[in-house]
Write a sequence for this structure.
C-alpha cells in the first residue's frame, strides 16, 4: 500500500505521459519514465494500485502501435516533401535575386551611359549653335 499523495503523483504522471506532455522524460510509456515523471521510486510504483491502470494503458498503447508507426512514417514523408519543396523555393528565390542584381547592374550602367550621351549631345548642340570661329575661317574658300 502506498500513500495517497504517491498514488496521486503516479496518476498525474500517467495522465501526462498518455497526453504526450512529459516534463522530465522522452515520453515513452515505461515504468522508469512514469516513476521519473511522478518523482517516486519504482518500489512505490509496484506497491501502488496505479500499476494495474498502467498495465492496461500499456496494452492499449501497444495495440495501437501499427497506427502510430504509420502516422510517424507519414510525418517523416511529409517532412521530407516539405524540405524538398522548400529547397526548390529557396533555389528559385536565389535565381530571382541573381537576375534582380544583374538587372540592377545593367540599369546602373545604362543610366551612366545615358548621362554621358546626354552630356555629349548637349556639347554637340552647343557646338552647332556656336561654332568656333577658327574652324569657320579654315573652311572658307
Amino acid at each position: 500500500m502506498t500513500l495517497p499523495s504517491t498514488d496521486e503523483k503516479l496518476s498525474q504522471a500517467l495522465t501526462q505521459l498518455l497526453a504526450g506532455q512529459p516534463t522530465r522524460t522522452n515520453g515513452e510509456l515505461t515504468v522508469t519514465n512514469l516513476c521519473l515523471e511522478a518523482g517516486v521510486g519504482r518500489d512505490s510504483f509496484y506497491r501502488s494500485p496505479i500499476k494495474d491502470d498502467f498495465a492496461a494503458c500499456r496494452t492499449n498503447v501497444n495495440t495501437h502501435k501499427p497506427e502510430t508507426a504509420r502516422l510517424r512514417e507519414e510525418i517523416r514523408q511529409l517532412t521530407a516533401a516539405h524540405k524538398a519543396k522548400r529547397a526548390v523555393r529557396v533555389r528559385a528565390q536565389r535565381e530571382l535575386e541573381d537576375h534582380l542584381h544583374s538587372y540592377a547592374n545593367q540599369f546602373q550602367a545604362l543610366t551612366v551611359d545615358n548621362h554621358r550621351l546626354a552630356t555629349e549631345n548637349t556639347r554637340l548642340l552647343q557646338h552647332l549653335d556656336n561654332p568656333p570661329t577658327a574652324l569657320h575661317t579654315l573652311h572658307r574658300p
